[in-house]
Amino acid sequence: MKHPTPQIPTTIDLPRAERTRLDNGTELYLLPANEFEVLRVSFVFRAGTVHQRRPFAASATANLLAEGSARLSAREIAEQLDFYGSYYDVSIDRDFVYLSFCTLTRFFRETLATAAEILLHPLFPEPELRTYCAKRRQELDIERTKVETEAREAFARSLFGAKHPYGISYPGSEYETLTRADVEEHYRRLYTAENCFVVCSGHIGPEEREAIAALARQLPHGTRAEAPMPATETTHEARVTHPGAVQSSIRIGRLLFPRQHPDFLGMQVVAAVLGGYFGSRLMQALREERGYTYGVTAAMVNFEREGYFALATQVGTEVTADALRLIYDEIERLRTVPMEESELRLVQNILAGEMMRILDGPFGVADATIENILCGMDNDSIARNLQRIRAITPAEVQRLATQYLRREDLVTVVAGADAEGI
Amino acid sequence: MITYHTYKLSNGLTVIANRDRTSKLAAVNLLYRVGARNEDPERTGFAHLFEHLMFRGTRRIPDFDRPVQMACGDNNAFTNNDYTDYYITLPVVNLETAFWLESDRMTGLDISERKLTLEKRVVVEEFRQRYLNQPYGDQMMLLRSLAYHVHPYRWATIGRTPEHIERATLDDVRTFYRRWYRPSNAILSVSGDLPEEQVAELAERWFGPITDPGDGNFPLTLPAEPAQTEARRLEVERDVPASAISIAFHIGGRTSPSFFAGDLVSDLLAGGDSGRLYQHLVKGRKLFASVNAYVTGEVDPGLFVFTGQLLPTTTLEQAETALWEEIDRLINEPAPERECEKVKNKFEANTLFGELNVMNKALNLGFYEMLGDLTLLDREVSLYRAIDAERIATFSRETFRRENSCTLLYKAKR
Does B168 lie at the interface with A, CB-CB under 8 angstroms? Predict the structure, then answer.
């Protein structure tokens, strides 16, 4: 039987968000999709780790917002959210904090009332802070027994410098001296109207619209946060010895540029060719042809002020040196030999499919909108990005790899048994 | 509420279609009724290894992933103790590509000695990465072998040891493929924006020509686990930063009343931050860094599991006593009305959140059909609604008995 011919989407529609500037300066973005019975509101604050004045203050603040307010105890807040089946999700990166509330539309009011307590009136009670610190310290200790964590932290230090806000990591003991005052200070300084925007998607009627605006309008005034960014100090090689590990964790990459740079999308394609999908060149070389690993990935990573290329894998201890050689060889091949049109077409289609999947459903639309806002772009940029990716040629891929992935510019980190010997 | 149509092809393949008008994507899910429970005890990990081999190409299509990716699609698979599941999401305009590929690999798999050798290596690396080179990686394996003595749930899907995987031969591959990968042992479920009849037509066009070997139904004769009559304990020492404890109790299978009651009780204990265990033992008494309760949810009689990681200041004895105190409360104090209402609301909301994308829907349709009762998909919310405080106490009394318990003490080396 004749096999079906696939059709490739030539454009992707992401609705423009309705944007309103509230009296207090907070920007509100709405993405109504009234065919759903659910709704999500996300508050994004410029309050990530680069803005903290004490180690772990940023994550502690974000995670303790729901641990007790002027009117409700931590337990009552949890009870309220759970009773209506709502989800409250906190995530944090170096630059930002993302607080999201997902709820059935019919329980929207109740959920928003709890959200107001969390956002506007947190108390950060001392006992909750101490429980949190003890728990996180233990989690961190467990995380740091993994070669993967050791490699990830060493990689950030190597790329940016051990003291750079994007590279630094702290000993777990810092949790013991973190005080309520540190957390309170972080909150007062950063959880303000000037440091926040709000994105809401799903079922949004007039009532929901008004209620969200009413809540966001209550965010207090403050000053827009600017974290000092010292120059980066890159170290090209790092090894972390982990006696007895049966696998080594490898990270290779280099500092490049943030998303706004004209070559960012192109480098996303380069990363995808190397390790962005199941049949990628590195996956072929390490997994499919040799069985060295369960998986390998490569990607461009974006921070507000910097961006970098990275690839990561975990391989058997005994094949670590050979795996490194294979990775360098694959990078070199991309720089010296033009890729086939058909392989590039495949990668372009994969990236188009990924964009469609990210945008599927009301919550994905909100995530993509947040990402665009953070890069100073509107939602039409999704269609432009797709055009740009589809227009890339093999010659351009080679040009990018030649320019940006020179062996002497790469940072290599290995964590594993006998890592020093490799 | 998910609407669906079901069809059965003459070769025995079950087809289920759901129309989703909101998405530009479609999901195709193909479930085979074979999992780790169907393995030879001396050749464990094979169903999962075989799942990997299903991506190694057929006589006509040497690379499975490539055509999926050319069609802007994404695909993956997983194996558990009961079944093996393959899924593809792609733009709905390219739906037929998924039918072409899945029907092709139902009969055309082409595995050479070299492919098998390589894949065994990949799976051994997976074994190392996820179970051996991972703090607490073997905890569930130990608990399974403590709780089950004869039923195949006594081993995990990855297998009992990497040596079993290394031992697999091409002959094993052929026999396994012939026996389990056939239309009558599979369920195809599809969700996307196209008319249900069209799904049926596509299924007929691509899967209809496949003949089912029809050589017997291989009645499943899995050894039933005898009732446990006395408490079991196992203590191990590992190089981990904190000690951990698990207590497992035997309950009924996935469609039995005791599963639903157990699931609800696990939500009382550990559903969300307001759950009893987190509130009492992590926040209130500060004994645990993390604590959880869950039901394994497997087809055959399963387990209700309590598990937690201790804070350094807590002894294993204290942790164990504290868990039993929570159990005593379940048995002796009726669960407050509002608390019951809370976990039921949460279950209902989760059901709704789970219906937001085509992938989840296709997956669920296949799963409930595999359980043998697709109507359960829409009845579960009302089944949970019917569970009251008395039922919770009865379930707890009947289940949480010392002689029905398996306790694993996972001690951190000092």
Answer: no
Q: DSSP assignment, residue A408?
A: G
Distance from CA of B9 to the nearest CA of A (A): 19
Nearest to B125 among A84, A294, A357 (CB): A294
CATH class of the domain at A237-421? alpha beta
B232-412 belongs to which homologous superfamily? Metalloenzyme, LuxS/M16 peptidase-like (3.30.830.10)
| ipTM for the predicted complex | 0.86
**DSSP-based three-state secondary structure for A203:** coil
Q: Does A408 touch chain B (CB under 8 A)?
A: no
Cross-sheet strand order for the sheet of A293-302: A237-241, A411-416, A247-255, A307-316, A293-302
Listed by start position, the domains of chain A span 18-216, 237-421
Q: Give the nearest chain B residue to A127 (CA atoms).
A: B283
Cβ under 8 Å to A: B residues 340-379? 341-343, 345-350, 352-353, 356-358
Cβ contact (<8 Å) for A84 and B65? no
Q: Is A145 on the interface with B (CB under 8 A)?
A: yes
The distance from CA B352 to its chain's CA centroid, rounded to whole angstroms, is: 20
Question: Cβ separation of A142 and B135 shorter than 8 Å?
Answer: yes
Supply B129's token pair: 């990465």
CA-nearest of A226, A174, A186 to A58 is A186
Q: Are the Cβ atoms of A135 and B350 closer than 8 angstroms?
A: no
Q: How many CB atoms lie within 10 A of CB A332?
A: 14
Q: Which fold has domain A18-216?
A: Cytochrome Bc1 Complex; Chain A, domain 1 (3.30.830)
Do the domains at B5-207 and B232-412 have one common CATH topology? yes
d(CA A147, CA B135): 11
- How far apart are the C-alpha atoms of A399 and A405, rounded to whole Å? 10
Tell me whether A229 touches chain B (CB under 8 Å): no
What does the pLDDT look like over B361-387, one tens digit per residue?
999 999 999 999 999 998 999 999 999
Q: What is the CA radius of gyration of chain A?
A: 23
Q: Do A78 and B125 touch (CB under 8 A)?
A: no
| Per-residue confidence in pLDDT tens, chain A, 422 aa | 778 999 988 888 889 999 999 999 999 999 999 888 999 999 999 999 999 999 999 999 999 999 999 999 999 999 999 999 999 999 999 999 999 999 999 999 999 999 999 999 999 999 999 999 998 998 999 899 999 999 999 999 999 999 999 999 999 999 999 999 999 999 999 999 999 999 999 999 999 999 999 999 999 999 999 999 999 999 999 999 999 898 999 999 999 999 999 999 999 999 999 999 988 999 999 998 999 998 999 999 999 999 999 999 999 999 999 999 999 999 999 999 999 999 999 999 999 999 999 888 889 999 999 999 999 999 999 999 999 999 999 999 999 999 999 999 999 999 999 877 77
Determine the CATH number of domain B5-207. 3.30.830.10
